[in-house]
Amino acid sequence: MTISWETLGTVDPRRVIDARLQLHWAAQAACGPGKQLLPHQPDYSEQSFEWEPEPRCLAKGLMAGARPFHSAVRPSPPSVVLLDAECRVGAEQPLDGRTLEEVYAWLELEVPRWTGRPLAEPLQRPGEGLPAHPVGSGGRFSVTDDAAFCEVGRWFGNGHLLLTGVVERNADASPVRCWPHHFDLATLIALDPGVEGEAARTIGAGMSPGDAARPYPYFYVTPWPYPRGRELPGLAGGGSWNTEGWIGAVLETAALLRDGEGEAQAAAAMSFMESAIAACRELLTRPQGDRHGQ
User: Longest C-alpha distance within the chain, in Å?
Assistant: First the structure.
C-alpha cells in the first residue's frame, strides 16, 4: 500500500476544533481495553496508540484472546472500532448521537466476545486534565460535520507519514506513537542512548491536532533540556520558534497552507522538520557559553 500526502486546508480550521475535541474524548474510551489487557511496559507505551494507515485508525497494541484484536478510534466515519490481528475492522460503534458512557458500555459488552472471557473490572474512565467539551460531561457526540472529522484524519495520516520518515533517518528515534491524554502524534530522538531522566538530551518531533494554546493543528520539534538564553537558529518551511512556556520549533496551520496543496505542503513540512531537528541538535550540542554565529 503506497501512502502519500493528502492536501490539508480544504476545511476551515475553525471547524476542525470541535471534531478533534470529540475524537480526543473518544480516544479515552478506545484506550480503555489496552489499559486493562495489555502488559505494562517500562515506558508506559501500552497506553499509546499507533496510526494504522489502511483502516485510518489510531489503534492500541494487539490484545490476546480467542480473537486477538486492537481497540481503536477512527476519525472518519467517526467511531470506536475493534480491529482483528490484520487490522481489519471487525466491530464498530459509531459515535454520532451516543454518549461517552454508551461507548464504554458497548466496549464492555464487545471486548469479552473477542477475548473469550469477562473483563476483570469495568474499563477505566477518563481522569482529569482533558480539554473541556460537553461530551466529557455527559453530552452526546455530534458528527454532522463529517468533513471536519476527515480533516483531523488527514492531519494524523500526514503526521504519521512525515514522522515515519524522521524515524527512518534517525537511528535513535522511538516508534511514532499517539499518547491519548495529549492526543498528539510524536517520536523522541535520544541523543544520549542509555541515559535516562533529566540528564538525557532528547529531541521530540510531532504533530498536534490542536491544544489550548494553539487551537489549530501544527507540527513541532522540541529540544530537551530547553536552551535558555540561546540565540535560536533560522527555520525552513515557514517554521517559527515558540518561547512562551516551552521552547520549540512550530509549523502552524496557516504557515503550512500558504505553500499550496499536496506535494507542495509535503515538501514544506519535510523542510521544516529537517531544519528544526538540525537546529535542535545544534542547540543541544553547542557549548553552553557559545552564541549562534560567533
Answer: 66
DSSP 216-274: S-EEEEEEES--TTPPPPP-STT-EEE-SSS-EEEEEHHHHHTT-SHHHHHHHHHHHHH
A 10 A CB-CB count for 127 gives: 8
Instruction: Tell me what percent of the residues of the chain surpass a pLDDT of 90.
Output: 88
Residue 204 has, within 13 A of its CA and on its CB side, a CA count of 19
**pLDDT given at position 3:** 74
- What's the pLDDT band for 69 if we cut at 50, 70, 90? very high
DSSP code of 12?
Answer: -
C-alpha gyration radius of the chain: 20
Average pLDDT for residues 1-30, to the nearest whole number?
A: 94
User: What backbone torsions phi and psi does residue 108 show, to the nearest 5 degrees?
Assistant: -70, -20
Show the DSSP H helices in 8-99 as ranges. Answer: 13-37
Assigned C-alpha cell, 68: 486477538
Enter the DSSP assignment of 199: G
Beta carbons of 116 and 66 less than 8 angstroms apart: yes
Q: How far apart are CA 250 and CA 253, in angstroms?
A: 10
Specify burial of residue 264 (Cβ count, 10 A radius: 0-12, 13-18, 19+).
middle
Sheet holding 57-59, edge to edge: 50-52, 57-59, 69-74, 79-84, 89-94
C-alpha cell at 292: 549562534
End-to-end Cα spacing for the chain: 48
- Tell me, yes or no, if the pTM score tops 0.85: yes
How many CA atoms lie within 13 Å of 274's alpha carbon, on the beta-carbon side? Answer: 11
